[in-house]
């Protein structure tokens, strides 16, 4: 029983971080139909912000999180203006963004490698490798703190989307971009804000990831498949779906890793992606695409 | 008229380019500068580039400057194959340096063999690479990875009293060419050639069984994308093993595993990792967690290996000084090994008197223990499949934040007593 509870705790702890990593990706797709393959590379950029602040000035990565989020949000505004705004009305916008963001991912990786080298990094506050021990059970402090902060941020995002005027506008744009525009929503501004929030979430996730996983620029390719699995399972565009999928898959992967074998734990994510695309392509909380 | 002038210009440019090629010796290296293997790939690049620069500063090779062409294969085997094809058929290189990792070296071996190129291998220790029947393979480390366990067990036998030695072990490893190869030797598995399913070697009962150490856990994780380190560390702790063997494919994995073992409060008597000699390891895990971790390596900055460059002595200490001057940081084995490869090829070209790869191969194959290739990794001569003769791993251990070497005893100055048992993480 202790082993069961332990594995459950580890799965949940990992799920919190993955939920935050995926939520920005989901938001950006939901509002703008941008399949942002560069999202993990921007998470890594956020991780570098937290890493260097800790290394140079000893600033805790959780304290640094808002700054990393703001810096990345600013970069998000620039990227949107430069790369996506012009093409937003294109009929093949989503398909184009796959190629655009793939190129962006490679560029970001190259830039990060040029600035920070390909050396692996990990931020090491004391709690990152510490744990609360309760009898035979341990709760890793790093992942616990990261998970709690993730849920707070995602909760704040949900409140923002539900109750603020901009939140209304973002949700309206998510549901039907053309109808929102007809009703007077400035969808271009909404898109910029939503993209900035999405990339800001990548920055925030990066600050947390910096002490949970080690990272280097090329690490993005390992994360994109995992994040796409989470977002597709949850339903592209659904933050709630992303959170549910992240926790579900992390817990299942933890049990698979323990009782089937570590080799298969990563496979859990890809298997889920495969199955959901076969039986329910819109994901758990996504909407069925309209037939043409 | 314009067309004639253009054609004449193009012909002139081609002639001049050809003349420029003739004035230089071109060497190609495909490395994983980006992608999953980029940490080591970048360091390999530095090793090759520094060596090349020093050769040119000392007057070049056979009176010519050496031009190094490095391409990024993005850690992708297919790209690495294409790049070596391009080096040979388009860039018309005179020689090549090998790539990083067994995963990339294995397929590249077929291409270089097809063109009868000398294939100096910096990092590609899986035995299967050397059983494909390729000629002119020359491995610039110690031995096939499958035999690494022999030196690990030797440390335990030589430096720990029998009644104190670990009695049980958890072996965890990446599902990777290199890590699987070390595991095969430790666990006593058969090595199978993936091309034809033939048995290459039967390593039973394995070095651990030979040493009387009971294997209480064996687990492997996928080659890429594994994040569940805490779960794995928890299983290791619960196995109650007195020794942990972590065969990681990269220093990054070694950091992740060690941090996870610390988090779960594992307390083994001895930890051996296949990676972790790099500076990133101590940076990532901290002095306290690294303390007592045993790692095999081919190179250590304090070992007095005697090499040559441009026909003159160029020892390990010279390499360390030159590297620090060039890059402003201390080298590790991921830069020292390619440097040694470059020294080997330089000596082969001088020895053969040309860049004829057949002659270079003959010269390298003719090396003996008494008349070896001399590098910053020591002396090299090879057996008939391309594995080094009579070399042992340097077993190092983190002690007080520094890498000390604890084996082989009596071969180098500066060998220290093994710190044992490990006091937690």
UniProtKB/TrEMBL annotation, chain A:
It is a multi-pass membrane protein. It comes from Rhizobium subbaraonis. The keyword Transmembrane helix applies. Keywords: Amino-acid transport, Cell membrane, Membrane, Transmembrane, Transmembrane helix, Transport. The keyword Ribonucleoprotein does not apply. Signal peptide: none annotated. Pfam families: BPD_transp_2. One of its GO terms (molecular function) is transmembrane transporter activity. It is found in: Cell membrane. The chain crosses the membrane at residues 7-31, 37-54, 61-84, 96-116, 144-161, 192-216, 223-256, 262-279. It comes from the Bacteria. One of its GO terms (biological process) is amino acid transport. Belongs to the binding-protein-dependent transport system permease family. LivHM subfamily. This is Amino acid/amide ABC transporter membrane protein 1 (HAAT family). GO terms for cellular component: plasma membrane.
Automatic annotation (TrEMBL), chain B:
Residues 1-22 form the signal peptide. The keyword ATP-binding does not apply. Belongs to the leucine-binding protein family. Keywords: Amino-acid transport, Signal, Transport. This is Branched-chain amino acid transport system substrate-binding protein. It comes from Rhizobium subbaraonis. Residues 24-185, 200-371 form the Leucine-binding protein domain. SUPFAM superfamilies: Periplasmic binding protein-like I. InterPro entries: BCAA_transport, Leu-bd, Peripla_BP_I. GO terms for biological process: amino acid transport.
């Amino acid at each position: 029983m202790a082993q069961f509870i332990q594995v459950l705790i580890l799965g949940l702890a990992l799920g919190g971080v993955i939920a935050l990593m995926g939520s920005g990706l989901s938001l950006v797709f939901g509002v703008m139909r941008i399949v942002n393959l560069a999202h993990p590379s921007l998470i890594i950029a956020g991780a570098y912000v937290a890493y260097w602040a800790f290394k140079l000035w000893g600033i805790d990565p959780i304290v640094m999180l808002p700054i990393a989020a703001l810096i990345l949000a600013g970069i998000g505004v620039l990227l949107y203006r430069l790369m996506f705004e012009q093409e937003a009305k294109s009929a093949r916008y989503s398909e184009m963004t796959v190629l655009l963001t793939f190129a962006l991912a490679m560029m970001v990786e190259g830039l990060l490698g040029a600035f920070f080298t390909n050396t692996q990094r990990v931020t090491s506050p004391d709690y990152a490798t510490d744990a609360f021990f309760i009898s035979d059970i341990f709760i890793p402090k790093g992942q616990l703190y990261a998970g709690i902060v993730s849920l707070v941020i995602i909760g704040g995002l949900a409140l923002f989307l539900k109750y603020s005027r901009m939140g209304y506008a973002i949700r309206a744009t998510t549901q039907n971009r053309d109808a929102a525009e007809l009703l007077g929503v400035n969808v271009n501004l909404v898109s910029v804000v939503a993209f900035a929030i999405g990339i800001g979430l990548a920055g925030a996730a990066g600050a947390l990831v910096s002490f949970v996983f080690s990272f280097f620029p090329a690490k993005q390719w390992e994360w994109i498949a995992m994040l796409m699995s989470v977002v597709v399972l949850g339903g592209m565009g659904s933050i709630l779906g992303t959170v549910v999928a992240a926790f579900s898959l992390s817990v299942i992967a933890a049990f698979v890793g323990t009782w089937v074998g570590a080799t298969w734990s990563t496979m859990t994510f890809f298997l889920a992606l495969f199955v959901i695309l076969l039986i329910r392509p819109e994901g758990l909380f996504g909407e069925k695409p309209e037939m043409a | 008229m314009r067309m004639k002038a253009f054609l004449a210009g193009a012909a002139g440019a081609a002639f001049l380019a050809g003349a420029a090629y003739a004035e230089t010796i071109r060497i190609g290296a495909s490395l994983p500068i980006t992608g999953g293997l980029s940490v080591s790939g970048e360091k390999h690049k530095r090793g090759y580039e520094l060596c090349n620069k020093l050769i040119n500063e000392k007057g070049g090779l056979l009176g010519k400057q050496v031009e190094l062409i490095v391409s990024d294969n993005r850690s992708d085997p297919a790209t690495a194959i294409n790049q070596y094809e391009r080096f040979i058929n388009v860039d018309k290189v005179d020689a090549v340096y090998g790539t990083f990792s067994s995963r990339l070296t294995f397929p590249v071996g077929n291409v270089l063999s097809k063109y009868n190129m000398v294939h100096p291998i910096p990092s590609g220790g899986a035995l299967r690479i050397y059983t494909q029947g390729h000629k002119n393979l020359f491995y610039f480390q110690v031995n096939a990875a499958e035999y690494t366990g022999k030196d690990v067990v030797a440390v335990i036998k030589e430096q720990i009293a029998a009644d104190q030695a670990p009695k049980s072990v958890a072996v965890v490893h990446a599902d990777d060419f290199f890590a699987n190869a070390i595991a095969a030797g430790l666990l006593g598995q058969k090595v199978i050639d993936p091309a034809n399913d033939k048995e290459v070697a039967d390593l039973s009962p394995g070095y651990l069984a030979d040493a009387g150490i009971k294997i209480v856990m064996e687990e492997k994780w996928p080659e890429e994308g594994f994040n569940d380190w805490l779960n794995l560390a928890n299983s290791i702790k619960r196995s109650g093993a007195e020794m942990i063997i972590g065969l990681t494919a990269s220093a990054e994995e070694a950091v992740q595993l060690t941090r996870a073992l610390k988090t779960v409060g594992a307390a083994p008597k001895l930890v051996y990792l296949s990676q972790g000699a790099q500076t990133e390891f101590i940076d990532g895990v901290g002095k306290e967690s690294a303390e007592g971790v045993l790692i095999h390596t081919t190179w250590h900055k304090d070992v007095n290996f005697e090499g040559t460059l441009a026909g003159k002595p160029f020892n390990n200490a010279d390499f360390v000084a030159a590297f620090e001057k060039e890059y402003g940081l201390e080298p590790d084995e991921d830069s020292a090994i390619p440097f040694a490869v470059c020294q080997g090829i330089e000596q082969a070209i001088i020895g053969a008197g040309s860049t004829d790869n057949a002659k270079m191969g003959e010269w390298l194959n003719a090396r003996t223990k008494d008349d070896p290739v001399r590098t910053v990794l020591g002396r090299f001569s090879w057996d008939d499949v391309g594995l080094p003769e009579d070399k042992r791993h340097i077993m190092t251990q983190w002690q007080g934040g520094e890498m000390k070497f604890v084996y082989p005893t009596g071969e180098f100055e500066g060998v220290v007593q093994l710190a044992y048992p490990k006091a937690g993480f």
